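Why run this: before we spend reagent on co-expression, it is cheaper to look at a predicted model of the complex and decide which construct boundaries make sense. The entries below are exactly what would go into the expression plan.
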Amino acid sequence: MDTKLIADRQIIERYLANQLSDAEADAFERELEAHPELARDIEQIARMKTGLAVLERRGELAKLLAQPVAAPRRRMAWVATAAVVVLALGLVVFRPSGTPAPAALLAASLEKLSSRSDTPIPLRASVALARARGMGFDAELTSTGKSPGAAELELATRGVPGTHYAIELLAADSAGAPAVAKVPDAVTDAAGAVHVFVSLSALPPGSYLLRLSAGADAPIEYLIAVRPPH
Amino acid sequence: MTSPEFPLRKEDLAGIRAQLERKCGNAAVAEDLLSEAIETSLLKLREGKIERPEQMIGYVYRVALNHLRNFRRRDKASVSSADPLETLEDEKTRDVAAPIDHARWAKTVMEVLKELPAARDRELLVSFYLGEEDKDSLCQRLGLDEQHFNRVIHRARERFRALLEGHGLKRNDFLSLAALLVG
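The model came back. Tokens follow.
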């Protein structure tokens, strides 16, 4: 039993829920003794469970479970994003001559991504992402720093060809995971995948969530890391 | 639970203490179980039965969790076993910081739940962590594949961790706790 296996199989959660056999529980306890850093994960999970129990006791859980998709915080994020977009548009229209427009972060094509750039942005990487492939990051990209560069992401959806998705790019490291870019309409190709292009120079290093939404279906999400330039 | 020889930051063990309390239904008993776990671990350390001092914290948890397991075994064997413990409740032994901590964790987990866009994922999280429903049953009931399940759990945990770290619980805390334990 190694630490990755413990995380992947939710061993701590199952241990605390008494769902492990005696042999499995003994093995986990031995692992805990050898790897004391696991105590941090136990502590975290125990706190999460206690937090949920408090919400249940206060009668707040049912309300949260029934809450519509757009939670107040998300709506606030959208309002903030909309304000930023309006401000950005204002700057584009009224900017003094010689002031460059902010670079696009996400687009449905390389041409659109390059639309605010004087020269076409070179494609530096192409990555195909399979839906729900595993845990952790689905793709790790490297920032090109000040040099222009883009990555093409092929996002599998398992949907039928011609399905329309709205794609949001969320800053996963920031409080409330605000949306930083959006492609309002992307259509799946013959293989059921959609293609988007991200700027490797304009997107700061960090963790991002790409969320694909189509109607009332549960959204598809991909977690992406942008690493600092070499 | 503290001693002058081995100053211990109780707040670092607040989660496991709360878990013990939830399972045995009594704050005083939970406190005793945790104190016993620490004392047993210190004894093992002094006897040289714990190889490296940094293993101390893992040992404390191991003993505490073992108490929890034993308690649950007893609980399974006798449906009324927890009832007499309720009468042992002594408000004086209750950690005065606990309600504040618990409220903070509730607020944090509420934020995690609110950030989950799909109602199904929120239900998954609650049923898994609070309802302690097993993974296979949940996947079947909610029509999820295992990978989606893993992904939701992993991201919720990461988000909860990030939010908690914003409030001061960091990986290093446990290393410093180990250092404090061994003096």
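The first helix of chain A runs from residue 3 to 8. The longest strand of chain A covers residues 179-187. Bring this page to Monday's planning discussion.
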